Amino acid sequence: MTEPIQGLDGKFYDLSLDPDTDDNTLSFIVKPLDPPPKESVHQETSSGTAAVSGQAGHPLMGSIHKKAFNDTAGDTHRKTFDEFGLPEALLRALALLNFRWPSRIQARTIPILLQDPPRNLLGQSQSGTGKTAAFVITMLTRLDLTNRSTQGLVLAPTRELARQIVDVIEGLGQYMGVKTQFAIPAMFVRGKEFDAHIVVGTPGTTLDCVRRGQLDLDHLKMLVIDEADNMLDLHGLGEQCIRIKSTIRHNVQILLWSATFPHRIVEFSKRYAPDCLTMTLEHHELTVTGIKQMYMDCINAEAKFGVLVQLYHVLTIGSSIIFVHRRDEATRIAERMTLEGHKISVLHSALENGGAARDKVIDDFRSGRTKVLITTNVLARGIDVSTVSMVVNYDLPMDKDKRIDFPTYLHRIGRTGRFGRIGVSISFVHDTTSWMQLMQVSEHFGVQISKVPTGDVEVSSHLIRCDIFNVYANLG
Ligand SMILES: Nc1ncnc2c1ncn2[C@@H]1O[C@H](COP(=O)(O)OP(=O)(O)OP(=O)(O)O)[C@@H](O)[C@H]1O
């Protein structure tokens, strides 16, 4: 048995994570130790229920249910989707998908985005708080689905995110007869005109399709740019997004979304989406309460791999993502982890094969066929896999000037702790520079990043479990 953990209630528990999480819960085995309670422990919170229950003397199954708290909660008066005047077919799909209440960003944006005349928006909210459904619900409500012209265009930075967005549109639009198409490499027929209500694409391929006359945007009503701070960055995809915008009418409603909007991008974004309503957050509001941030101090860069192996020996924790800086490093670590007996997937942009290889990797990970995914920043943004309960920053994210990249840190750790779940992020530091960079992260976002010792396997395991437990105990 592992070392007991003292909960905030003063009692002692043995806690281990249960990897068999379902879509709605992160579960763990909790065994009360001192003394075994006669009745179940049941803790009601103001915004949901966190329960540890079971019979005395038996291992107990505790779980954090999908519940709205913190960033995902609506405002004081909790609105319902029924109040937004949505089509009946959409309400049916929301009910089927178990979307019972809108999250805060959904409650704030959907009603105003549905008003006439349509307003542009720059919308920011923490990772995993339901921005995708916010724009998909708006789009499905606004479009005339009896007309087969392309009325909605969604641009995303990667094929994985574009595929995920189409899944959300098809899920929410399943009773509405909505047709979607991709404008991503190898996912459309060259020379054939697009005839879908909504096209979801990456900027380069979308622009290509518009220029070839395959994609007609004359009837466009709504343009959504997901991960907009990244997409409008002139060092990246900004130029292509500007060109796409120059082909559309000026009364098209433009929605820009992201969890991060650095100041330098906000001004440009406001020019891209003129007169937009702006919902932004301060640095210290950006972190998600359910994500416990930690770090491990490695003696040097070479020692990091040993620490990683040690970490995976003591924790079997649902699914996890390991972020590294370089593609060759991702492959190298994957090979070594495989030799250690782990089932590993690797995804980076050099993995092409017309996209099929990338699609298989992410599909295997999503379905739980693989539990550990090693990747680069290509998957730092947007990807929503609810079973991910740990993110490892094997290397800290750097910008092109070799400074710590705050937005990417936030997006990476945001692959866990989604929509009210709890998760852990562990960043590796290996010298004074990386340690100072992590302290800058802590200061920038106003969060505590606690140290997990690397020497003693049992102690590190215990401390991580202890921290997770306290996040759990503090919920609500
Ligand atoms: N109202 C709701 N009720 C229940 N679940 C929801 C609701 N809205 C969204 N979700 C779920 O929350 C999860 C996170 O949503 P989503 O991926 O849209 O977050 P996001 O804010 O776009 O995150 P990121 O900034 O990382 O891109 C998804 O699994 C989605 O199905």
TrEMBL record:
Enzyme class, UniProt record, top EC level: hydrolase
Region (Disordered): 33-57
SMART domains: DEXDc, HELICc
Presence of keyword ATP-binding: yes
EC number: 3.6.4.13
Ranges of residues in domain Helicase C-terminal: 307-460
Protein name according to UniProt: RNA helicase
Organism: Tuber melanosporum (strain Mel28)
